[in-house]
Amino acid sequence: xxxxxxxxxxxxxxxxxxxxxxxxFQDIADKLGIRKASLHYYFASKEDLGLALLEDYTQxxxxxxxxxxxxxxxxxxxxxxxxxxxxxxxxxxVCPGGVLCIDYNTLPTKLQKAVVHFQEQNxxxxxxxxxxxxxxxxxxxxxxxxxxxxxxxxxxxxxLQLARMQNNPKLMKATGLNLISLIEK
Length: 185
What we know:
Elements: H1 3-18, H2 25-32, H3 36-39, H4 46-67, H5 73-89, H6 96-102, H7 109-135, H8 145-165, H9 170-183
């Protein structure tokens, strides 16, 4: 694996375990066994690394969407919750969007804009699935799709944090399933 790819993977791990402000170029360089200055060959700044992380997460989400394309909308929503649950099963990590929202006020402006765009893309995808599920009478038709998408995302992100705090990776999944039972028809 090339150094840039390794650096991104290490940074993803640190981000989801420690937050954006919880790691440095030096941490990544130490893990790679290289000098900190060598990372600047790939990333001019930590902001550039953060933008590369978001690009990587966006590509991963698009691949995830394609993988589940043949599923019905309610099943996709359930798989979305499963995706969040997989974070908690992996060393009680939190989702990248959630951790970047926590650190939002301390992020550089360009990275803040990228985080907003990332969250909006995920929310738009979820809204679309909710509308489709409503048309198929899989979930309640009186729910506002935008508000329900926000509810799902915020519940998933929040329950990941509680799962970490309580050292209980199953908490996130249970919370997600309870939420589904509230919106299902």
